[in-house]
Predict the structure.
Amino acid sequence: MHQNKHQNTYKQHVPVLLDEVLQYLDPKAGESYLDLTAGYAGHAKAVTERTGSLTTTVLVDRDNNAIKVLKETFDGTDIDLRQQDFLSASEQLLAEDRRFDMILADLGVSSPHLNEDSRGFSLQGSGPLDMRMDQEQVLTAEIILNTYSIDKLTDILKRYGEEPKARQIAAGIVHARPLTSTDQLAEIAKRAWPGHSRVHPATRTFQAIRIAVNDELGMLEKGLPIWLKLLAPGGRIAIISFHSLEDRLVKQALKEASGERYDAELRLLTKRPVVATPEEIVTNPRARSAKLRAAVKK
Ligand SMILES: C[S@@+](CC[C@H](N)C(=O)[O-])C[C@H]1O[C@@H](n2cnc3c(N)ncnc32)[C@H](O)[C@@H]1O
């Protein structure tokens, strides 16, 4: 592993809850590892340094830039790198009859996504209405915002953003068409929330559109049961989510599989979600909303 030319991008991303992930995954020499959202290799490097077992490690990410960094980080090794969404990667691994001692999903967007205006994720600055994690995907935020009906937009804002002013913002979007930049979208949300608010008034709107563009909840809901099947006996799974909609799905899936039944396939390692320490939040504000849940396969 060596320094790479994407070092700046790579440096922008600090892995969240790293100590806690290592505590629950508990990597041991020779163990296999599946990282479903390998991103900028923060967790993957720390885990594989402990297992020393790169041939039984699979790293997945659907983002071009992340894959470039992962390739350079693990250059010269036999690591199995897959540029895919984690749902199709998981289905494929199951079809290959693979099993893993550790599985990690660190959901959502990375800091480089948020820091680069050109990706359209950030509500600060001005960028194109893109928001795709997979740059090859056809559906963009621009298509959703300029073509979906007011009812459909209201539903997205309510469901994925829990936005109380969903209808008003959806009407603002339809009225302002054609929308081409993120600052236009932020402005529409701001108009619905005049006066001072604790969070940026467009936060919920951006989250909702981003989730819709990337089908984030759909993929998580379908992926979770497959991930449990991909765990070897004694295998540990850790999932980090960044908003309550994701955490609800994770909590439910782990709870169902670890009930009081004699044939329950999992044992929960975290009764409550683990959150970042105040010290971590100071150095990495992205950790503020992170929630980690973990379980072990019996
Ligand atoms: C929070 S970052 C992960 C950072 C990583 N753990 C690290 O330490 O560098 C989330 C990553 O997951 C990827 N991602 C999100 N949803 C995905 C999905 N459905 N399939 C594949 N990758 C996904 C994003 O592209 C992003 O790189």
